[in-house]
Design goal:
heterodimer; A: Sulfite Oxidase, Chain A, domain 2; 10 strands; B: about 280 residues; alpha+beta; Fumarate Reductase Cytochrome B subunit; 9 helices; 9 strands; Di-haem_cyt_TM (chain B)
Chain lengths: ~260, ~280
Amino acid sequence: MTFSITRRGLLIGSAAGLGAFGLTGCDDVVQNPNVQSVLDMAETLTMKSQRLLVPKDKLAREYSEADISPTFRPNGTSQPDSEAYAQMMATGFADWRLKIDGLVERPVELSLADLKKLPSRTQITRHDCVEGWSAIGKWTGAQLGPLLQSVGLKPQARYAVFYCADQLELTLDGSGTYYESIDLIDAFHPQTILAYQMNGKDLEVAHGAPLRLRVERQLGYKHAKYLMRIEMKDSFAGLWGGKGGFWEDRGYEWYAGI
Amino acid sequence: MATLDDHSQATPTGPTITVIRRHSLATRITHWINVLCLSLLLMSGLQIFNAHPALYWGQYGADADPSWLSIGAVDGGTRGVLRIGNLQITTTGVLGVSGTGDDATERGFPSWITIPSYQDLATGRRWHLFFAWLFVINGSIYALIGFLSGHFRRDLAPSGEEISPHHLGQEIADHARLRFPKGEKARRYNVLQKLAYLIVIFILLPLMFATGLTMSPAMDAGYPFLLDLFGGRQTARSIHFICAWSIVLFVFVHIAMVILSGLWNNMRSMITGRYVIETERDDR
């Protein structure tokens, strides 16, 4: 058997191997709505299988003090730019109130002092940004589950929607207001807390002062900062892009477990 | 590599041409789905990597932490640099900075290798996770059939004699001289092929799968042993990256071997299953 590598053979062989790379030119395919709806099936599959495989109260790993990251990178907004926020900041958030309303029996408004009296939890956990980096921090805050129980959820309540003080890419219709949502499984998870402390100190502005969400089994963009209001809802209808969050409206998965 | 439809044709002077059924339908279908999945997984994976083009060892790692590999732009965004440990390589135009002059843009891997071509992490993730699912389903079907049909035992498991240092040395020497098995020996994979396929199927691909899951905060909560197995989420991310490029390396060698040892015969056998072996008369 002899080898005769013809020019034609080499060219065709290389073309076969590199054929897939030609797809980069096809951003049309990437943007096609039908293609996207097929790809969306993976998110449903991921969420259903993870919900099946991970017991609903299973805790995210907690680390030791020694594991805490020397620097914890603030991401997204590091300083909300509204006048209202600046005023709250000036008074050390004395006038700040967290409103909890929507599909609840007894809507409330809580001050920071009120929140600090509630059952709390301290946990050293890993924050995984969707971009790929991770940081470990110690968080202290009120557990969301007991708080929601105390205000009494109506039977139709399915999601906790978090409205924030910060804005990104603000447009005329107000889309750009940061918001997030989680379902009741994550809302009632023992490690889901409304954190007012990080690494033993009151939360810094860059990390979401005065209050942020920690929902430890999800990626970083779910951990909404600068919380102003929690509304219990049965759907995302009427909320900006209708996908349940600022980043979700911009193409990211609502279920961010991977 | 069953020989279901052997039919030999002897010509008075030339070699005997035998057509054998080399690859089962299951192997052929799963192979081409793998080609699709691995290509798209690599390209969407590099899109994801570009969102934070640095790799770390351990439980955490972000901008301020020491990375063992990074791709970035220096000198005001004009010079691309790939850094591995203390080694710095200028990669302007390809890594760190795509294009040159006025067209220079800061990006980790260049747009021609990422899905989508522009920077869009959300879309890259959608493609990656969709093809990860397809790839895992396809791989599970292949593995199931491979075990049940005896394909792994019959065609991939090397014999004791084959993995003897003498035989291995001989095979390596033959490959280096581009002397590939012919005649009856071409009916079966040679030992280097077997070992390469076994490493990919039973080491690299399962590692990709397991390190991919270790990057999931939900899976880490459910199965914390994953973090202990790999030594942390950031180590798992690094291993995921290293395995991906190991597979790329395998694919390049694989394609080179396919071309060198008979492009048309190999392609036909992977598409129709039929592979031609030529047997010299005096070989028989």
